[in-house]
Design a protein that fits this description.
The chain has six helices and seven strands, in the order αααβββββββααα. By secondary structure, the chain is an alpha+beta fold.
């Protein structure tokens, strides 16, 4: 059966564009490389003799069987796993595929011993890496690391915000204070906006202090 050579090219382009839109550039490039390799392999196979084509098909089927066997073996193998997630003020560690009870260490400290459940909660101690190590009754061990983000400004930031508010209110009467509010707002923004340990909305909100402080210069200009 003859197949128009434009069919695999067009279908490959369509699938590559779909992968680009849905999954990003790297996935689309990876798919494109595999698709091009498959087309080259098929084209090369069709140029071989009948006996060689039969041998190539046997090799491909053998590779497929080995891959399926590895997949089934990995899926049937059960080993304890642990994953971590963050809530507002705590970390939740979820244990699966193990044999309870569990011993759980968080940052090297034994948090719970002979725990029969699957979810362990520990407090957020700060914006640094928290590592949980879990051991089940079969002495299987797993670990997971979570770096939480801060959902509230630290105390020193609230102090700067207090000073900024004082300057902003003072700018109503003293025009030069608006420059102080703009400068301090810019400092707060430069300190907090690149800080990946803060929640996204806190980093975005840090720009508010500079924008408002800068606008005060124009709002009260000439009123003093």
């Amino acid at each position: 059966m003859d197949i128009n050579k434009s069919v695999p090219i067009i279908s490959g382009l369509v699938l590559a564009v779909a992968a680009l839109l849905l999954y990003g550039v790297m996935t689309a490039l990876t798919f494109g490389l595999f698709w091009a390799g498959a087309i080259i392999l098929i084209e090369w196979t069709l140029r071989q003799t009948k006996a060689d084509r039969r041998f190539i098909r046997m090799m491909l089927w053998g590779c497929l069987v080995v891959m399926l066997a590895c997949l089934l073996f990995n899926s049937s193998a059960s080993a304890v796993t642990v994953t971590g997630s963050q809530t507002t003020d705590s970390l939740v560690w979820s244990v699966s595929n193990g044999s309870p009870p569990y011993d759980v260490w968080v940052n090297g400290v034994l948090v719970v011993e002979d725990f029969p459940g699957e979810h362990i909660v520990s407090p957020v101690g700060g914006a640094y890496a928290h590592t949980a190590v879990v051991t089940d009754s079969a002495n299987e061990t797993a670990s997971a690391t979570v770096t939480p983000v801060m959902v509230m400004y630290p105390l020193w930031v609230w102090g700067l915000i207090g000073v900024w508010l004082l300057l902003a209110f003072l700018a109503v009467r003293v025009y030069i204070a608006s420059y102080g509010a703009a400068a301090l707002g810019g400092f707060i923004m430069l300190m907090l906006l690149p800080d990946v340990t803060l929640a996204g909305y806190l980093r975005i909100a840090s720009a508010f202090f500079f924008i408002i402080g800068l606008s005060l210069i124009f709002v009260f200009k000439g009123d003093d």
